[in-house]
Amino acid sequence: MASASADGAPYLVPLSFDRDGGALLMATPTDSPTGGNLAATGAVRLGLGYTRDVTVIDGEVEVLEIDALPQERADRFAARTGFDPREEDMPYRWFRVYPLRIQAWREVNEMPDRELMRDGRWLV
């Protein structure tokens, strides 16, 4: 997950995620650089996959307090990721990412057609 502060300082961190309908759900400490950046700017870039099979997602972020999700949804996140932020000593928040732009490619020949979503609308 790549985020940036309000003044443009970048920050990159690996995070677990789970699909939440058409969005991706993640959690990180409230006071971490990532948590602060996401809450301040509402913007994120995600890189998923391996070097030769990459998906890049630009999205807008919804910030949720840790007790805002229904227990069933938070339990599903914990089961699927092997991590339960509700059990941590430091305060965490949920961050739901809604994709606005999705790009995917594997090889140079795929670059012209790599954009799959723009402005939240599927192109394919």
Beta-strand content bin: over 45%
Radius of gyration: 15 Å
Low-confidence stretches: none
CATH superfamily: Electron Transport, Fmn-binding Protein, Chain A
Largest beta-sheet characterization = 7 strands, antiparallel
The general outline is globular
The whole-number mean of residue pLDDT values reads 91
Write structural notes for this entry.
The chain is an alpha+beta fold. It has a single domain (2-122), classed as Roll (Pnp Oxidase, Chain A). 16% of the residues lie in helices and 46% in strands. The chain contains 2 helices and 9 strands. Strands 3, 4, 5, 6, 7, 8 and 9 form a 7-stranded antiparallel sheet that branches. It is globular.
